[in-house]
Amino acid sequence: MEYLDQTDLTILRILQKDAKKTAKEIAEILNITPSPVYERIRRLEKQGYIKKYVAILDKDLINRSITTICQVSMRYHDEAFIEKFEEQIQSLEEVQECYHMAGQIDFVLKINVKSLEEYHDFVKYKLSKIENIGVLNSTFVLKEIKHTSEFFIG
Amino acid sequence: MEYLDQTDLTILRILQKDAKKTAKEIAEILNITPSPVYERIRRLEKQGYIKKYVAILDKDLINRSITTICQVSMRYHDEAFIEKFEEQIQSLEEVQECYHMAGQIDFVLKINVKSLEEYHDFVKYKLSKIENIGVLNSTFVLKEIKHTSEFFIG
DNA sequence: GGTGAAAAATGGGCCCC
DNA sequence: GGGGCCCATTTTTCACC
Hints:
The structure is a homodimer.
Chain A: H1 6-17, H2 23-30, H3 34-46, E1 50-57, E2 66-74, H4 79-90, E3 95-101, E4 107-113, H5 116-126, E5 133-147
Antiparallel strand pairs in A: 2-4, 2-5, 3-4
Helix pairs in contact in A: 2-3
Chain B binds a DNA duplex through residues 22-24, 32-36, 38-39, 42.
């Protein structure tokens, strides 16, 4: 694995805040010409540092205002059950995040829905249909204090 | 607030998956010319549906492999304490997400760090320095099953 | 650093509500 | 008459040498 220099890190910091910044703009910040900036960005994409570029939408405007954190524990912990659970979670479009955890809680899920009614339907018809779920504990987000896709670089 | 038609929704679905799709490519999918696609995207940006465009980085490659979910409860629930807590959390760059929750747990945080040692330092020197924290319970992510910035549209 | 290709952005004009 | 779409043009950016 090759290491990144300060120029690479600066480029990554800029792009994870604003992917629309042009190579020219970044070049001005770095006091170099646009060409090496292009090349570095292409390299960072190719090496996998930059996975993709996405638009971040306003969840209230697109009617996904309700966010819940849902803790799930399995009844049995066979490899097969775990894998099947993970597979099924992937396909649930309401689930934005899912983590397999250390400790008593097996999985933590973050779910976005339109309304409390929709969450009810989600749990009733989708989540609880997954077999082998033991404990299922939902808590509702009152306010989003911070939510970013950025990582601290450096 | 104006409503979005199916064309708008399709554009949003495409862009939150891949912001590099050109207006021309989107136009081909929609069977229209690029111009209305441009115009709609500008409008969606102006109206706030699209908040920003960002690069998604690989957290392992940039050395943020350790993710923890941290549950925090406050000792006192004065407005002033809550607001100060929220303010201080905003400025912690290790914290990627923070939600004010309903229920016994006041806040849920998602934190990315390089190593267990760094997490130790984070809790010791940053998080626990915030006054009025009562309970602080960290659990570690063993595996990221799903993590997307996309919302289900529709 | 420079060049050809491509995409973004803009403006005029058309058609259908 | 207005909104949305198409087409043509200019400007900017990209990608490659």
